[in-house]
Design a protein that fits this description.
56% helix, mainly alpha, 127 residues
């Protein structure tokens, strides 16, 4: 099984858009960044395209640059964390992928057998 997990494709464009939206909300709405507990959300409930052209931003260009930097930092940290987790568990990921290629379905017991050393307290979900 050959993998090229770091190749850039268009397949993840929606994932990237959603991640960017979450990071933007973390910074602009919830104050969850190094900019501190401040909200830059000036939407006032407006949800149509072009709202910034109608109302304008309620913060400076310097603040906009800081916001963009924070968003990029959050996304980059998330990507690096993802890479580290995948690299750490590449053996298990390949085993899962190979099983799915062979039989298309992976039962809980099979998944647990491959990954139980990662989380030995994993219990079967009733959902």
């Amino acid at each position: 099984l050959k993998t090229n997990l770091w190749r850039v494709t268009t397949g993840a464009s929606n994932d990237l858009a959603k991640a960017t939206e979450i990071a933007r909300n973390m910074v602009n709405r919830y104050g969850m960044s190094d900019l501190g507990p401040v909200s830059f959300d000036d939407s006032k409930g407006l949800s149509f395209l072009g709202k910034d052209m109608v109302e304008g931003k309620q913060y400076s260009e310097e603040s906009a640059k800081l916001i963009d930097t924070e968003i990029q930092k959050i996304l980059q940290q998330g990507f690096q964390t993802c890479q580290a987790i995948i690299k750490k568990h590449m053996k298990e990921l390949k085993a899962i992928a190979e099983t799915l290629i062979e039989q298309e379905v992976l039962e809980f017991e099979e998944f647990n057998a491959i990954t139980k050393h990662i989380n030995p307290n994993l219990k079967e979900s009733k959902i």
